[in-house]
Amino acid sequence: MTTTTQIFDYSKWTSQLDELGKKYQTASPYPHIVLENFVNPEVLKDCIAEFNKLNETDGWINYKHYNENKRGLNKLDLLPTTIKSTINELNSPEFLQFLSKLTGIKDLQKDDGLEGGGIHQSTRGGYLNIHADFTVHPHHRNWQRRVNVLVYLNEKWEESWGGKLELWDKEMKACEEKVTPVFNRCVIFNTDADSFHGHPEPMTCPEGVFRRSIALYYYTVEANPFRRATYYQARPGEGSKKILVRLDNALVSMYTAIKGKLGANDKVVSNMLKFFSGKKK
Question: What is the pLDDT of residue 259?
Answer without folding.
Answer: 64
